[in-house]
Amino acid sequence: MNRNTLPLFNLAWYKKLFWDGRVNSIEEQIFEPVKAHNELNVSWIEVEKRINKSAFYKSKFKQVFEVNKIDSNIISKALAQFLRTLISNHSKFDKVLQGKDYLNKEEQEGFVLMNEQTKGYCLHCHSTDANALATSLEFSNNGLDEIKNTKGFKDKGLGAITKKDVDVGKFKIPSLRNIALTAPYMHDGRFNTLEEVLDFYATGLKHSPTIDSKMEFVHQQGNRLSKEEQKAIIAFLKTMTDSVFISKKEFSNPFIKNKKI
Ligand code: HEC
Fold first, then answer.
1. Is 183 left (phi over 0), alpha (psi -120 to 50) or beta?
2. What is the CA radius of gyration of the chain?
3. pLDDT > 90? residue 256
4. Per-residue pLDDT averaged across 148-158, rounded?
5. For 84-96, what is each residue's pLDDT tens digit?
6. For residue 227, how far is its CA from the centre of ligand 1 (angstroms)?
7. Ligand 1 center to 247 CA (angstroms)
């Protein structure tokens, strides 16, 4: 099963990780991509062997964890601590929330449309006002496919983990921070642009048994926002791009010398 890669930021606030929420901590999450056949495809025993051969890592781990032998638990702890430092909070929108910048007319219109119940109606899932994470952290089926019964979902998402019919076809509600940088979109990467995503919410919603009751515009295929309104939402979404975060030296590859960022 192939899924779209989720970006790494603000993970310290997530109670469940992966599109289907199958693990409860960053430490646990780290164990999976290493052994996944379509990712690093290597056993943890092999990883431990390789890391223990490195004088560089031996001395670093000794310094921090006071150990002579590095095992997978310690590796996952070190990586998890690093991942927790990936905090994105320097976008234009963050400055606006702090009263240090302001949205232009189009961005402001987009913000209002997203948070207006009779218009975009995005707020209950991708909260952008009181909750700066830009997600409610819940799992939901936002109506991507026309499906008659729960057996029809190609990817069962949360339902495959909880084994409950009501969870079939539900996926993590992704944060909309840095969304302009993380195409393609949705758990299966089916949309290549934000224009396609907005078009889907406007006219492409489909019925299925577990569709979120908050997708109430499904009876008219979507929120029917005009192209201008969709453009305004995209303009607002772009204010959540955090260029300070993505160009931080601390988060770049430490083994590449003389890099220009
Ligand atoms: C009922 C909850 C809900 C509402 C309302 C909702 N979304 Fe979503 N949104 C989701 C879920 C769940 C996904 C991931 C779905 C999947 O991949 O199966 C998603 C995915 C997205 C993505 C792709 C994110 C990524 O990283 O791939 C964007 C962009 C997006 N939504 C924007 C919006 C906008 C804009 C609105 C309002 C017009 C909106 N959403 C309304 C639940 C919702």
1. beta
2. 21
3. no
4. 94
5. 999 999 999 999 9
6. 18
7. 26
